[in-house]
Write a structure and sequence with these properties.
The chain contains 6 helices and 6 strands, in the order βααββαβαββαα. The strands form 2 sheets. A 4-stranded mixed beta sheet has the order 4-1-5-6. Strands 2-3 form a two-stranded antiparallel ribbon. About 45% of the residues lie in helices and about 20% in strands. The longest helix is centred in the N-terminal third of the chain and has 13 residues. About 10% of the residues have low confidence. The protein has one domain. It is globular and about 30 Å long. By secondary structure, the protein is of the alpha+beta class.
Length: about 120
């Protein structure tokens, strides 16, 4: 299972705050994973199709949920983890995700990582 972890907390208040931040100061928005994969109205259709085509289980988690559910803290987010035996191992780090400027670049990064596993 891949766990995509956003550098944002969950909940309605945080979602509304994030939307405002993306609109008024997008250059300072802290979660590049969110910025690339979501619009102000939800997950991008292209990203959803990409995730569905990965052929493996995928979860999405906010920073607060990651700590609550898996006890993970002190890891720079956003990140992608591999879940094995209920434990998470960093698979794609924040630096790699933050270097992506487009959704296509992020998708290529994920495909490249996955190709090295098989």
């Amino acid at each position: 299972t891949l766990v995509f972890a956003y550098n944002a907390d969950g909940g309605m208040f945080n979602a509304l705050t994030d939307i405002a931040h993306k609109i008024f100061a997008p250059e300072t928005y802290a979660c590049n994973l969110c910025a690339l994969t979501h619009t102000n109205f939800g997950m991008r259709r292209e990203w959803k199709q990409f995730i569905e085509g990965l052929g493996r289980p995928v979860e999405f988690s906010h920073a607060d949920e990651l700590k609550e559910k898996y006890g993970v803290s002190g890891v720079e987010l956003p990140a992608v983890f591999r879940k094995e035996d209920g434990k998470l191992r960093e698979w794609v780090g924040a630096g790699e995700i933050n270097s992506c400027r487009t959704l296509g670049e992020l998708e290529r990064l994920i495909v490249e990582k996955a190709s090295h596993e098989d």
